[in-house]
Every structure is written in C-alpha cells, then in structure tokens.
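Onboarding guide, step 5: your first structure request.
Type a short instruction followed by the sequence, for example:

Predict the 3D structure of this protein.
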Amino acid sequence: MRTTFSLLLALALSSCSRETPTPNVLIVVLDTFRADRWGKAANGHDLTPFLGDLTRRGVFFENAYSTSSWTSPSVASLFSSRHPSQHRVSSFDSKLRSEEHTLAEAFRNQGYETAGFTANFRLSAQLGFAQGFDHWRAYMGDLQNGKRDPKYHGEDLTRQAAQWLAERSPEDSSKPTLLYVHYLDPHNPYGLTLPSVDPSMTESLAIANRALTELRFSDLSDDQVRTLEESYDLEIAYLDEQLRALFSELETAGFLENCVVVVTSDHGEEFREHNWMLHGATLFHSAIKIPLLFLAPDCPSGRVQENVSMIDIAPTLLELAGIPPAHQFQGRSLASKIDPSRESRVSTPLPNTNHVIAELASEGRMTEHSEAVIWGNLKLVQKPSGKTVLFDIKNDPQERSSLKFEDYPEAMDMLRHLESFLAKTSSGEGEKSDAPLDPETLENLRALGYPAASE
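The system replies with structure tokens like these:
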C-alpha cells in the first residue's frame, strides 16, 4: 500500500540535481507551535509522529527564528521577506501595505494559481494578507449560539483546502499551484473541545483557560499552569493528526507528486518560564524559536545547525521553484542547504549568515517594542529604555542567567549590528497602514486573550 509521502521518498533516492517540471508549492504554518514540541514525547507518547516522519524525509533547520512573537508581524514577514520595522505591521489593525511585494505575487506572476486557507481570522484580506492570492479564506471561530468557541479547528481547515483542490476546473488544475494552509489549534484556549481531554478535567481546565484569556496570570497556580501546558500538548497531538490527514488528501489529489513543501510556525508560546504566559510580549526563545522543515523533490534529508530567519523562507521557495528573486526581499535563499548540488543562483546573503534579528513589534498596554539579535550562540535583547541583556543560548537555552556584557567582546559588535539595522529600517520605509477593527473582530480577539482588544 502506498503511504503518505512515499512518492517524495522515492524521488529523494534519485539524483538531486536532475531537472524536474515546475513544482507545486505547499506552505503549512502551525500557529503558536513551540519549536521544542516538534518530536517531543509527553506521558510516554510521541506528540508529533507524523511530523517526525516528514522530518526524516526533509531538511530540518534546528535554529530557526520568527521575526516577532505574534502572528500579524510574523506572517507579514513570511510573505514579504522583510522585518516588522520594514513592513510596519505592528498592531491588530495594521495592514500589510500594497507597496509590499509578496511571496504569492511572485508565484502568481510566474503563472501559478495561488490559494490560502487560514484558521487565524486576523490574516484577513481586509488587512492585506490576501495580496497575490487568487483565492483566500480566513476563518473565524463560532462565538454565537452559546458555543463560545473562538477557534476554527484543524479538521475543518483540512476539509476546506481539500475541497477547494477537488473542485478546481481542469484548466486551473493544470497550473502549478501555491497552497498556503495555516492551522490555529495550539493557540489558547487549550483543550476545551478536544475529545482526548479527561472529562473530569473539563471544569478545572475551563477555569484555568478563563484566567489565562483574561490575562490574570497571577491567579494561576502552578498546578493550573501544568494543566494548561498539558492541554497545549494535546492540541499539538491533535494538530499532528490533522496534518497527516491533509497530506493524505493532497497525495490522493496528486498534489505532492512534484511539490516543494515547507512546514513552520509563526511563533511559540510561554508557560511562565519567565513569569509570562501566552505570546507577543517578550522575545525569549520560547516565544520566537520556531520549527522549520523543507522537503523538495529529489533532494536528500538532513539537519542544519545554522541560525536562520523566517524572512529566508520566501527566497528559498522561489529558488527551489526556479523563479527569479524578488529584489525587495531581505532574506537569503537557503536552497543550497536543502540541495547541496545546486549553486545558489538567487541568494542575497546578509552581512553575516549566522545573524538573526527579531522584533517585538507590539503596541499594546502590556508590552513595549524591543529588538533582539542572535549571533552564533549569543543573544542580545535591547529595550527602548536602553537596557540590554545578553544570553548564552547554547549553554543556557532557557535564558535563565544574563551574562556580563563586558565579558564578551563580540557583544559590542552585536549591538552595533542591531543599531545599524534599526537606523536603516527607521527611514524611507513609509507610513504604516491601518484598517479599523469591527465589533465581531474585537470580540474574537478578546476570546483569544489579546489585551489590545480590551484597550
């Protein structure tokens, strides 16, 4: 019996340099998926067996980072290959400006049909995220009729994407296709509708989720935090099952026979490792380190240790699909890491390929804009007050102890690198664009625990 992704596995056994027809492209984003949950075992069970199977067939980047710690600026960076201070998406009503050249536009200009399905309703056409997509749907949870469920679940999203593929016209089906699928399941509230949750825990879990969503973090006991984290893990396991279903549907449709695939996350999640819960308020690793997996026809599997950024995804996909680079993109192509036999034809290297920059890009009452630069094994975080902290992320991955700045000569180079970046991005990028929040959107934002919706 043919198993999911067997076709790609067979192709991987042949020469990686062989010319192939124009590939389909699949982008899967797992909202709020911490990097340390990829391949994690909990209670004696592997949370992500399907993702583990994919990893053995592709190239996994061990040290990948988002450009921010919440969805809107992160996905804007994924689409534009630019940092938040460049694309200016920094609040809930920020709109991705039409002047930005997006990944979907680059593919559509080369004859691709482009479609996107997202369970995160903030990625709406109204806010510019549909730019370049022929078909775009952003789904919202059900807060009506007493359901009070703010999330659109994975099985429904998978069904929508599969149905769209099945119903395409013969003319559209003959085109190469860029398909974007963005799941929301690991986002809070956790576990309220999962059948795997112990019924005896339903009431206590609802109480803990309510305190979490209302940002009453100090009201949460240690046991409640553990319960929330265990429920988050159940959401991860559920999502893994939905991904297996998605890939099975795509394989049956023939979409994966010649396909470049990337699976990643927009940001992580915090469980009081640093006295904070949720995401969008800090730049700790738990919030910005993300999984990143590429699969490409005829290319071998492997793991890469180099620091890479979310802005590197778009140029990589273009090169793997044989499409000329978009000159506005700031990221660099990682195609040579995925396919060592090719010469990097469209790569645009940064000053140092092991440097990664992240920005908080938040304008809420509980946060302030700050920046971080990751340079090799060191991480420097600077806040507007001028306070700077330094961590050794290799020997202290939990970022428990800050280092003495004067003990690390390279820290000054990191600071200069960050200041140079900020000086370049603070001028000539134009004004941010906004779209007003309607009452239904505000209600859904509050249901997902976003403080900006309460201001």
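Each response can be followed by summary notes, for example: DSSP finds 14 helices and 19 strands in the chain.
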